[in-house]
Amino acid sequence: MTDWDGERYAEIATLQHDLGRRFVAELDPPPTARVLDAGCGDGYVTRLIADRPEVAEVVGFDPSPLMIRKAREEAHPSIEFIDGDVTAFVADRPFDLAVSVNALHWVSDSVGALSHLREAVHPGAAVVCQFVPEGERPSVEDVAFSVATSPAWAPWFAGLSAPHVHRTRGEWRDIAGSAGLVVEDTTERDLAWDFGSATAFRAWCALGFTTFTDRLPEERRDEFVAGVTDEYGRVTGSDQIFRFLQLRLATRRPE
Fold it and tell me: In order of start, what are the domains of the chain with their CATH numbers?
């Protein structure tokens, strides 16, 4: 797994933090809830959840040691941050709610991920996840993979598999059912975020493109990122506005 820079992420993840605030505002945790945050990243959303008056305790986990290190810098009396992979996580005792925000589209084993989240909660408890689904418009990850496998860049990317997994809303319904969850809602939103400049958009993309750029000589990395954002601009009509889908998958473990 390619690690992400937790310090740099916290500096420029304005978009992710905004989405996290919206996500937490729509949660409905039970009183004195013990909550699991899968793929917690820098811990921003985890702290928002912990600040909800209904929440007593939160455990956040992420497979990135650098992210967990950053998350632990801001101590919170009701949060525990641990290293962990959603496809292998086993709870020491059941949670009242499990959530995941923009992490599951980086996990290839979707059924395994949701199955572990189901097992982590009490019967009847909710599992609510939000992530990028498959849509008609190519995602920025799709464009990055297309550029990486083009003739100009292919020598550095032999054998590379796409690091992201985007599935349609209907596919996610089926996957949740296969994982033993009851689907209550699948709300899909088409959103946009203006970074203000092409340079700012490239800086944001560079942080998430490490699966690609770690394969390149350092002196070619900026060129690759610029090639992706230029191509993405041709797809969307802007080199500074990020257009993306968000699917909120609200499920529950059967009683």
Answer: 6-135+164-194+242-252 (3.40.50.150)
The model's pTM is 0.90
Q: Confirm if 87 and 116 have CB atoms less than 8 A apart.
A: yes
- Residue 227's CB: how many other CB atoms inside 10 A? 18
* Residue 242 half-sphere exposure toward CB, CA atoms < 13 A: 25
End-to-end CA distance of the chain: 36
DSSP bridge partners of 190: 245
Largest interatomic CA distance in the chain: 56
Give the pLDDT confidence of 222-242 residue by residue, as tens digits.
999 999 999 999 999 999 999
